[in-house]
Amino acid sequence: MTANETLDRTNPWQSFSRLNLGYVDEQYDKYLDDPETVDPTLRRVFDKWGRPKTIDGVPAASHTVLDNEGAGDPFDLDQVVGAVRLADRIRAYGHLLAHVNPLSDMRVIETHLMDLAQFHLSPKKLKAIPSKVIWPEAPANVRNALDVVGYLRDLYSRSLAYEFSHVQDLREKNWLNRAVESKRFQNPVPDREKINLLKQLVKVEAFEHFLHKTFVGQKRFSIEGLDVLVPMLDKLIQFGVHDGSRQVVISMAHRGRLSVLAHILGKPYEKILAEFVHAPIKSMVPSEGSKGINYGWTGDVKYHLGAAREIDEVNKKYPLQYMGETDDDGMFQVKLTLANNPSHLEMVDPVIEGYARAAQDNRLKEGYPEQDTGKAFPIMIHGDAAFTGEGIVAETLNLSRLSGFNTGGTIHIIANNQLGFTTNHEDGRSTAYASDLAKGYEIPIVHVNADDPEACLTAIQLAFEYRKTFGKDFLIDLCGYRRYGHNESDDPSATQPVLYQEIQKHLPVARLYQVKLERDGLANPEKLKDYQKHLNDKFQKIYQAARDKEKDLKEIPFPDKLAQPLTYIRTAVPIETLRALNQDLLDWPESFHVYPKLARILRRREKALNPGHQLDWATGESLAFASILKDGTPIRFTGQDVERGTFAQRHAVFHDVKTGATYSPYHHLKGVRATFDIHNSPLSETAVIGFEYGYNVFAPETLVIWEAQFGDFANVGQVMFDQFVTAGRAKWGQRSGLVLLLPHGYEGMGPEHSSGRLERFLQLSAENNWVVANLTTPAQYFHILRRQAAILNTDVVRPLVIMTPKSLLRHPKATSTPKDLAEGHFNSVLEDPLTAGDPDRITRVALCSGKVAVDLSVEIEASASRPDWLKILRVEELYPFPEKDLQAYFSRYRNLNEIVWLQEEPKNMGAWSYAEPQIRKIAPKGTRLSYIGRPSRSSTATGEPKFHKQEQKRIISETLHKNEKAGQE
């Protein structure tokens, strides 16, 4: 309806809703002040009908209240409500108005969300409302509701922008809003600190410029455009150190890594420049097994390397720019660690969470570790494209509040250069901001302009104080740009021509901040020029020295210690010690009500160590754990169902059937002073494997175990195996004794629950980088776990991969005697006891590994006669391959003419492709080598149980009968 039509009605206001009347009433106030400011048509309505009235004839603005003193002019309650709603809207959406993009002064103006008209507010009426009515905490200079709106709009839309509306905890949200609105962390920066800040920005820029002009086209992933990241980290570490943290762990990908290594970790310029010219600085290259974490014998590219540095207040060595007051006693030692990281971007995220948790845990007592989150804190620096695109980020964020994995809050910084490789953000994410993923975990977010260094330091302080107060994650979206392409050999103008025209014109942050300080009379241009020349001369001198030493480059040899066999390690435990430990494990309090069915099962273990009895897999494992704890080695054990065990075999944690309370027998072993830290994990492989790897690297004295629910689930963690577990020592000199338990075996359960993909681990096996085993008895499991515990924190330590059983967990042919534990040791090869006949009659040796070996024994035992021409050897340790042990067996059988490799996996999977060349190398001359097993397939196993049984019967029969043809394609 038009205004002209409205004029003809008796009461034109009755067609308006109350909200619309509020807007018209605001226009009427403008009409009273100056009729010319109102639309002519609406002015005619006001001329004829005056102030808008509701349908009952009451003026639209007549509902009034007095101020909170009960005196003075009345003010409109609707205006109060609208102003409060607008203030909340500004708090929630003010970031849309903020100037956080340094390349553009244009803000994403969303005035329809936050202007007065949207809330039917009148400036004149807002002036009549005291500020305390709208905002009780309003500063003294904010006098009325209109001032409140202006103040908040300005506060929430500068170069710092805040997103807190997704935080559901009201206590946290109120703390955050009050911190911002009181400007608690926006204290004036002292002049001295401003000058130091400028010098650090100049130092970063000078270093990057020197690298750019000296090593033209070499990849370095320059920090330029995000230079302020260095002083931000400096400030953040300062806060942590003076709050009591003694370990600070950092992860980041490539962008800016060299500057962070140089200026935060204190990696000498000599070392960095030597890596560019391929010249080692001998005094700085740590020997294998030392504290250095940068060097293995194969090495890695310079922008993947990490570093560790001590801050030693005792000897007055400071790597930090902003160190202020020290502890009360003036003495402390702090370790900074930047984790090594491959090109798989965010994969390092859970690794440093494991570092931090290991640094926080006290493992020198029984029970669970005592965690002190103040002892260490993690910092993660993410790429904007990677934070959104890499699923590992979400997995890692999900760990942040889980009891077995939390680290008391991580400070996340997105190094936002607005591009992923050559991909614009609109092609790389479906969200408005790169940081939006964090909203799902209720993590507070601050967006800050990387060209405003002081605002960046304010963001850092807010982040640290939130972490300190609430023990939760905080995210800073550092909005900048990258001055060059994805790397320095790229030409970015081919794909982002307009953007890079803008970047080329844009002054670096050091220059922008210098101009600001010169305007304030704090910066001396001539002194800064001298400082820049000093830096450049220093870099040039170091570079020339590195070039002169280029001829010294030598390959780092494979360490001899790793080639040593582990047969010298004694793992047997006296029988009386085992019996005492077994009794402790079964001696739960009478007041604790164990599930009756479980109690009956556990009570059977009481006789397991008596003469003439056999013990099963779970009992062997429990005694291994108990004896390792008794020896003083802490254990950490995680996986999706590890407390009970995927196959209900373990029961490391009991649940009271009446109260739901929990009890772990490993926490009540007599005389034990080492922790048993067991946790069911989230439905995540990659992040949890990374976490446990990091935990083990940082706590090398701890037996850290990860168990897959089924072995094939390890597929999802393949990057962690490829980049960290198998190669970390060769690339970075980073030692790990991580244990991986992967349930494996063909029981007709289909493709996804049969294979732990043994072949993939064997393909990665070289240089004694780990041990890969496929075991058949509890005693073998007992001894290999104890051997692993014995090599922890030594030069010969390496990870351990075990293909663990499923059906064998309770199989009567997969048991051991008490004597096997008390007097035995680990055997890389086991003889099948049912084929121990006359060696001279042996013509075929069948080599096999894992469950299929037990299947053979069952079939032989059920047969009317035993094949005296056949010898079955179980290869329990596949890598390192037991060449000497097998050669010794082969030499016993002078009539041997055939060796067969039997496996239940398809021919292109399992161990055959790995084992074949190993066996050919040691087979006696003239001996035929054949394969028995399933044919090559694209899927790991059939999904039809009937077909599975047929195939299994065939391969067993071929092994046990001379006339069957060996070797199937």
TrEMBL record:
Residues 945-969 have a biased composition (Basic and acidic residues). It comes from the Bacteria. Residues 933-969 are annotated as: Disordered. Residues 615-811 form the Transketolase-like pyrimidine-binding domain. One of its GO terms (molecular function) is oxoglutarate dehydrogenase (succinyl-transferring) activity. One of its GO terms (cellular component) is oxoglutarate dehydrogenase complex. It catalyses: N(6)-[(R)-lipoyl]-L-lysyl-[protein] + 2-oxoglutarate + H(+) = N(6)-[(R)-S(8)-succinyldihydrolipoyl]-L-lysyl-[protein] + CO2. The keyword Oxidoreductase applies. GO terms for biological process: glycolytic process; tricarboxylic acid cycle. Its EC number is 1.2.4.2. Its cofactor is thiamine diphosphate. Keywords: Glycolysis, Oxidoreductase, Thiamine pyrophosphate. HAMAP family: SucA_OdhA. E1 component of the 2-oxoglutarate dehydrogenase (OGDH) complex which catalyzes the decarboxylation of 2-oxoglutarate, the first step in the conversion of 2-oxoglutarate to succinyl-CoA and CO(2). Belongs to the alpha-ketoglutarate dehydrogenase family. This is 2-oxoglutarate dehydrogenase E1 component.
